[in-house]
Write a structure and sequence with these properties.
single chain; mainly alpha; MetI-like fold; 2 domains
Amino acid sequence: MVAFIIRRVLQAVGVLFAVGIISFSMFRFAGDPVNQIVSIDTPAAQREEVRRSLGLSDPVPVQFTRYLINTVRGDFGISYQFRQPISDLLAERMPATLELAFCATVFAVAFGILMGVYSGLRRESFLSKLFQTLSLIGISLPTFLIGILLIYLFAVTLGWLPSYGRGDTVRVGWWTTGFLTLSGLMALILPSITLGLFQMTLIMRIVRSEMLEVLRTDYIKFARARGLTTRAIHFGHALKNTLIPVITIVGLQLGSVIAFSIITETVFQWPGMGLLFVQAVQNVDIPIMAAYLMLVALIFVMINLAVDILYTVVDPRLRSTIRQPV
């Protein structure tokens, strides 16, 4: 098991190094950040001085080495736009994004599993067919359109929920949370549904297909022959084995929710890292863009490592495979 974890950690380091190369290379073609810092009529000598102070005049290998060393140390530099350390900007915006991702994931997992189990057990019922129709709508419609429709219905027409912002927040240490205020909880509802709807429909369809497959297996027939109750068969045997592939999907989707919350945060003007990234793209703030990509890559590899370890705990067949000599 230790050797398995070490291999996964080494693979994660390789992935982060590759992402570092890609982000550094790509952002060299994103535009000249000096144009965003100085005015149009700035003399060429002053422009060159600014470029030299930012380290943009150094050779590319020197810039890349400095970029990697600073990234490992957690130093992402100074934002060209905000003139603040990027680590402080990310620390300020991270609670909003993580709380939104957490609520969206809880919404997706809870409703996705419930709807998937019901659709698998009652696949010919009207409610099951309704769930299937809703899943097609959730997968087909783009995220920004879902957000706009929810805003129009619940914020503009009915006036029940806020259409933008995070609401009132409470500071707990360095963390700012909206869970402790009513307006913060109300502000979480629409963006959480918007962000989690696609994941919910995906989980629902996976759970439904796995339930239909598991219910046809021999050990379920044997459980029925032994006289076990329907509840014990469905939830004690079928659902338990159905959730094994769902663990991987949920883990990967959690990383996707954090990475692709950009659209949702833009639609609802949610003050998270995604909105910060959009502003950085608009202003060619290369350090923020590079830091965001590296942070998202780190979140992805950490989640994948946790999912791999959890998978071996849930599925005993993998534990026996890991123990075999390579």
